[in-house]
Amino acid sequence: NRVLQLQQSYPDLVAPCFGIHPLQGGGGPEQCSVKPQDLDAALPLFYKHRERLVAIGEIGLDFTPWCAPTQQDRDDQVTVFIKQLHVAKELELPVNVHSRSAAKVTIETMREQGISRALLHNFAGKPSVALEGVKAGYLFSFPPAVCRNQQVKKLIKQIPLEHICLETDSPALGLDKHVRNEPANITLSCRFIADVKGLSPQAVQIITAQNAHRLFPRTLEVIKIQC
């Protein structure tokens, strides 16, 4: 598995997660909604490499109409999501979660399944939905692309900094959607959140790093970011 090879080569930089994404087939015309059999084929790897994993993810729901056009597609996504939440609880691991066009049902499902440690990445749901996640103890992360999104700015204002992490989602979700995103651009997220919160980038760096380390305690080292 490529991610495990990378972790062996860069043990201080790469912390592996395993998960079956709600969309399969890459980002092109072959992309389709996940099916239960997609998880069945991969599930043994979760247990085989359980000692090396820091989280289960990226998992979740994507109800974007062109990605999951039928109720069966959405039902299959929920089935796969719940099964992976059960695996996370069994292995005592946090989850890294995708929730496009499905923020409310994603958070409701996690709460119903008793999930207490979760990161909702690139979250774009309503502030009221996010605050339900905050009540459940969940964290939210934002990539550089949010720097050009006024709605997400309002969202970040309402989420306590103690519930925020930084991310890039490289190579996607950069500041310029036509330019490949890079891990170094995490400083853009840091500075943007600092500006929204009226804090220094250094304060945001420290607190979000603490949040990440608390959520992912298996990580051996918090990677410091120079904002």
From TrEMBL:
InterPro entries: Metal_Hydrolase, TatD-like. A divalent metal cation 2 binds at residues 98, 121. A divalent metal cation 1 binds at residues 58, 169. Pfam families: TatD_DNase. GO terms for molecular function: hydrolase activity, acting on ester bonds; metal ion binding. Keywords: Hydrolase, Metal-binding. Exhibits 3'-exonuclease activities and apurinic/apyrimidinic (AP) endonuclease (in vitro). Show preferential AP endonuclease activity on double-stranded DNA substrates and 3'- exonuclease activity on single-stranded DNA. Belongs to the metallo-dependent hydrolases superfamily. TatD-type hydrolase family. This is TatD DNase domain containing 3.
